[in-house]
Amino acid sequence: MAGAAETCLERSRDAVGTLVARNTAVLHQCTSQRVTKWPDFVGVERSMLAAGESRGARGDVGIVGGQRVKAAATGMHSMDTTLRGQLAFVPGNPVLPCKAGSASASARLPRVRRHAPGTAGKARRSSAHGGVPVGQRDGHRVLARAADARVQDEKAVTSSDAAVEWSSVRVRETFLSFYEKHPRYAHVRMDSASLVPSDPTILLTIAGMVPFKPVFLGLEERSCARATSSQKCIRTNDIENVGVTKRHHTFFEMLGNFSFGDYFKPEACQMAWELLTTVFGIPTERLAVSVFEDDDEAYAIWRDIVGVPETRIKRMGAKDNFWASGPTGPCGPCSEIYYDFEPARGNEHVDLEDDARFIELYNLVFMEFNRDAEGALSPLKSKNIDTGMGLERVCQVLQHADNNYETDLMLPIIEKAAQLAGKVYQNCDARLQTSFKVVADHTRAVMHLIADGVRPGNTGRGYIVRRLIRRVLRNGRQAGIDGAFISVLSSCALDLAEKAGYTNCREREAFIRSELEREEARFLMTLERGEDRLQEAISDAKLAKQVVLSGVIAFELYDTFGFPVELTQESAAENGLRVDMAAFDECMEKQRIRARAARESLDLTVGAALASFAQSVGESEFVGYTQLDIPSAAVRGLFVQDAQVDSLDEGQRACVLLERTPFYAEGGGQVGDCGILRLGDSQFLVEDVRKESGAFVHIGEMLCGSLKVGDAVKATVNRDLRSRTKAHHTATHLLQSALRLVLGADQVSQAGSLVDPTRLRFDFNSPRALSPQELETIENMINGWIQSGIPAQVVTMSLDEAVERGAIAMFGEKYDRNDVRVVEVPGVSMELCGGTHVSNTAEIGAFKILNETGIAAGVRRIEAVCGRAVVEFASARDSIVRELCGTLKARPEDVVERVDTLREELKDANKQLESLKKKLAFVMSDALLEKTDQCGPADFKFIVSSLDGVDADGLRAAAERLLQKLGTNSAVVLSAVNGEKVFFSGVAGKDAVRAGVHMGKIIGAVAKLCGGGGGGRPDGAQAGAKDASKLVEAQELAREQIRTVFT
Q1: Binding site for Zn(2+): residue ranges?
Q2: Residues annotated in the binding site, as ranges?
Q3: Could you tell me which of 195, 322, 337, 809 has the fewest CB atoms within 10 Å of its CB?
Q4: Within 327-402, where are the H helices?
Q5: What's the predicted TM-score (pTM) here?
């Protein structure tokens, strides 16, 4: 028996070795010929498998390169364990196992939910003893070592538990490695760009191609012919679908490969198909393809080269399958690859828009046309490829998840949120599961946004972050999570981000946590107050049998409580109401009108015509670092209000483009230079300089004479203003260094700056205000560096070298990786900067902080002056002190003490005045007792009257005094006209409240009638209004409402 077993073992070893050698040889031949279909390996000599056939067992069915393979069984358990783990995958030729006797390989990748807790672990443990079973080849189970997810050769589905094997880390790395190491079309792997794009026309990075947009539009030279990336993206246009559908997200990763004038349609289609079917191992019958309705070329490629059956190729219209960068410019057809969840339904009547059956996996954009203003298409000289495959979607497919959320990208956050709520996610109903999905999705989004420098705010990107955080908190509360929780969830999200390679999240962990916790604390307070007011409004609307919630109330919630109108809409919808958005928008517009500055100015910003011209003429030569005047600079172009002209006459305001210039263009926080352009007796005053597509645009006015295109002008920068500006710029660098030393480098990051001849302004992230002592320390530190006369150095180097040496980069700025300008004050400061600077710190003269204030949550601002501006500041302050001394008849050193004395005297006088007002109100209110009304079976008492000339505090005190005299079964509503304002104050005793009196509603109603608003509790409320003409009518309304309750 032992001899027979050894013989069987030897034959098994030989069979497997021969099989691997043969398959490898065939694979090599296939790869060299760039075939798109792998051969069928069924025809292996049956003599190799005698050991398996002798048992008479039928072989399992597997998939080799997308082809169905029938194989004989083998005595796997008798195989020597020395073979385990020694056999490697045949690269590019995965084996997908499926059960013996199955009708088709479509049994793979079924639509099932994620494994129940515990079962996945059992699947892993079953193969952990030596190797990972990867399938069947001609009766032999092939083994491979469990390797790191970053190994490129791990391309096959390596276990029947694909949900475990295809982790998101492995999927991402496999995609990037496939294109980076492609034998013929190797791509350059690009890191994900920031969610804050350099393109000012885009609020956030919404697609994988956004970082490459300038290349596609021809605005920048390409740095490589082919690129691949996993780009983090944010979209909020369909935020209401997040958590509701299976595939909508705010934050997602877009896997993409790009060709800039290199390969085109055939190669893009073949590589995409190879990746999905050969590398990811998705059966071909699970895939379908769409093409643009007129794109016969793409249709033929899929049918004839790739080999997709015509029944699985669908033509679709421009809405779905044609991409354009805008009304004009580059554009082209798309082709999309879909995954089929239900292939058993067959190929007849295939509808790719059936979301229940199909999910779009891979979108290929063929950028081959240019569209002109008339809509005509002409071929591009350089044709490009732009592709995108959502990581969340492909993970859903490969991990056999029911939706994108229940993959390893988000499920850990979901389950942590459910745990905090004391629930098991899998056991929750659909409503709770939706809330947990929203929490997980938005937590990822805000973590990455804050890591990329976006802080919660009320406008732009900041508003998006604030809105997402508030949706996290609201959905968490709805799901049953009590108290603060977002920091706990952010820890989970940070762990996932770090595993994905987003190291910036971990590096900014403290900052992310502090921002989230601060915003959470602020919103929870707002939420409680706003929710009370909202529920009161909803209850009133439902009692009145209304279906519309007042837009004015929605605006009040937004304006007074900071309650997002989206949350108001969601709460209203949950109660069967809709918000009157027209009224809300009207209130918003009135507010904008009130806040808008009532002045008009000439718009000299760069327009479309000038931008197009600037792009066509190319960059201007800037010589302003070393020269402040040049004798001859050719005029390239002239523009008046974005209209190109040939010449300028005296008095015209215009934009002048020069071939070379000493004028610094606004950038990096530094304002543009001022100066003069001269041509004989003609002079053009330069008031500002902007940069457009590398061309310097000089903005100003033709003072005298004329100027025409082609003239050679003398360009002279205002030396005094430049000198002041560069002193302030270098001082800004010193300020940032001092802040980092005093507060801690990890506690300070630049959030913006402004440098001009008169001052500097530096915005920075900080969780708190600086103390006077800290400001004094910073000021003294900077003045010490100035007095030391430290020479400044300016050098150029690669970005990597600069970062390695410790240079600080301004977040959000775009830098050339090969050539950056580094400004260093040795031992003090080193920053990447393109601005102008002093050559020695002594040139700054002196430094003085004017003020330190908060401009947003977590953002502080320091304003300061230096050089001659310090002298000017001191002179202005000295004049103020002299005037105060004269007015107060005090010496300078006694001014503070004299002011404190006057302030105390004023405070005492105000107290006496308030006391007299209250006494007067009491005297006047006692006379109102004669106007007491009674009603109802319990003899309820109430007073509705006026006390003119009394302020709001006196009115409240009078109402409370009257209530004390009337008793607990009474109510008092008083009003007072004070100037143009009307005040209301109402109080009710506890018995009156039990009877149904709600003073908050009564006061709110009467104030509204007089053009105001307000409210409060059932036992007490106040309000203000501005229309005293309706006061009598308002008082009658109050009486009517009180009588209604009492009777």
Answers
A1: 729, 733, 833, 837
A2: 729, 733, 833, 837
A3: 809
A4: 391-398
A5: 0.54
